[in-house]
C-alpha cells in the first residue's frame, strides 16, 4: 500500500519534504497518508492574481491556494517559494496579495523569494513548446528588495529570504515512483505523481 512506500521514504530521509505546486484535483486519502509522513511542504506559489496566473501557467491558481489553506488547517510546516519574474510577478499588487494571503498562516515558516533565471529555457525549446518568458531577464536586486519590503509589512520579517543567485536544490529527489511504488499501485496513487515530487533531504530550518 502507499503507506508502505511512504514509510520507506521517511526511513531514507532525515527530513522528508514535499516539493509541489499544490495542484490537487481531488483530496483522496492518499494525500493525507503522504502528509502524515511529511515534515515540510515546499509550496510554489507562482502568482496570487488568478488572471495573471492563467496567462502565465495556463491554469487557475484556485487549487494551489486551496491546498495552501488545507496545509494551514492541518498545521503542516510550509516554505512558500515565490519566483519573482519581471513583468509577471514583480509588481506591488502581487506582493501585497501574497502578504495578505499568508499573514495569518501560522504554519508558514518562511517565504523564499526566488529571482527568475533562464536555466529551464532549453527544456521548452527541446519539447517544441512556446517559451512565454523569452526575452525576460532576471530581476534586479532593487526589485527583490522592494518585494521583500512589502512582505515584511505583513509580519514576515524573519522568514523572507532572497537566496543569492539561482537556487539549486541540494536535496536528492526521490522519484514519484519511489514514493508510491509499493504494490498495489492504485489509480489514485498514479494521480499523485502529477501533484508532487518527494525530496529526501536535510532541510536547513
Automatic annotation (TrEMBL):
InterPro entries: Organic_radical-activating, rSAM, rSAM_sf. Residues 17-92 form the Radical SAM core domain. The keyword Lyase applies. Keywords: 4Fe-4S, Iron, Iron-sulfur, Lyase, Metal-binding, Oxidoreductase, Pyruvate, S-adenosyl-L-methionine. One of its GO terms (molecular function) is metal ion binding. Its cofactor is [4Fe-4S] cluster. Its EC number is 1.97.1.4. Transmembrane segments: none annotated. The keyword Oxidoreductase applies. GO terms for biological process: glucose metabolic process. SUPFAM superfamilies: Radical SAM enzymes. This is Pyruvate formate-lyase activating enzyme. It comes from Klebsiella pneumoniae subsp. ozaenae. The gene is pflA_1.
Amino acid at each position: 500500500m502507499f503507506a508502505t512506500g511512504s514509510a520507506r521514504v521517511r526511513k531514507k530521509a532525515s527530513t522528508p519534504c514535499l516539493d509541489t505546486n499544490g495542484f490537487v484535483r481531488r483530496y483522496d486519502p492518499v494525500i493525507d497518508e503522504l502528509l502524515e509522513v511529511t515534515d515540510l511542504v515546499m509550496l510554489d506559489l507562482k502568482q496570487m492574481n488568478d488572471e495573471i496566473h492563467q496567462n502565465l501557467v495556463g491554469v487557475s491558481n484556485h487549487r494551489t491556494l486551496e491546498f495552501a489553506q488545507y496545509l494551514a488547517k492541518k498545521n503542516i510546516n510550509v516554505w512558500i517559494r515565490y519566483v519573482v519574474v519581471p513583468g509577471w510577478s514583480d509588481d506591488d499588487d502581487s506582493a501585497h496579495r501574497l502578504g495578505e494571503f499568508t499573514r495569518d498562516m501560522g504554519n508558514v515558516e518562511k517565504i523564499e523569494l526566488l529571482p527568475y533565471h533562464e536555466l529551464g529555457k532549453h527544456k521548452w525549446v527541446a519539447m517544441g513548446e512556446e517559451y512565454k518568458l523569452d526575452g525576460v531577464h532576471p530581476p534586479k536586486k532593487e526589485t527583490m528588495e522592494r518585494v521583500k519590503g512589502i512582505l515584511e509589512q505583513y509580519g514576515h520579517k524573519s522568514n523572507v529570504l532572497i537566496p543569492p543567485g539561482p537556487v539549486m536544490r541540494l536535496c536528492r529527489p526521490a522519484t514519484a515512483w519511489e514514493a508510491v511504488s509499493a504494490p498495489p499501485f492504485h489509480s489514485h496513487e498514479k494521480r499523485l505523481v502529477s501533484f508532487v515530487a518527494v525530496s529526501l533531504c536535510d532541510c536547513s530550518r
